[in-house]
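Following up on my earlier thread - several people asked me to post the actual chain instead of describing it. Fair enough. Here it is, all 191 residues.
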Amino acid sequence: MNDKNDAREMQPGLKFMVEFGPLLIFFAVYYFQGIFAATSVFMATTAVSLTVSWYLVRRIAPMPLFTAIIIFIFGGLTVWLQDETFIKLKPTIVNLLFAGLLGGGLMFGRNPLKMLFAAAFNLTDEGWRRLTLHWILFFIAMAIGNEFVWRNFSTDLWVNYKVFGILPLTILFAIAQTPLLSKYQLPDLKK
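Reply from S.P.:
Thanks for posting it. Predicted structure:
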């Protein structure tokens, strides 16, 4: 029996490539073939990424699956109608939907972040609430940022923002949540 398959976890480098490989390939294809070819390849590599994820760990996380569905819808519209507006709207739609799902969860007494990340973080209910509110505001800000960039600048600049702006901003924002995580961390009862 293979222990690696039993653990159902990907190695960090492979996980990064499965999650962000399609975006990096989108960027490369864009500069050689343009937005429509890049969008087609983005959809294809996203499908491959989901397949690899399923093959390796026998599950697909909800957020990548949800994002893939949006990629297929807006990417398909972009290619079919030959209108780059749809792929440019995708980050706005995804960010607003994430903000809406988190906000809706809070309104109905559920915390989607807690449900997804309770195994990784042991926070008080107030900590989960505050963390969720921070992410809601972040997703709204990212949607506004995407709208500003694609509506006011060239497609080249938007592609660079999408590839080299959104990911670093998300990582920096996640790191900036460390004080909140520390402040509301519950004591570890396992000894």
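The radius of gyration is 18 Å. That should answer part of your original question.
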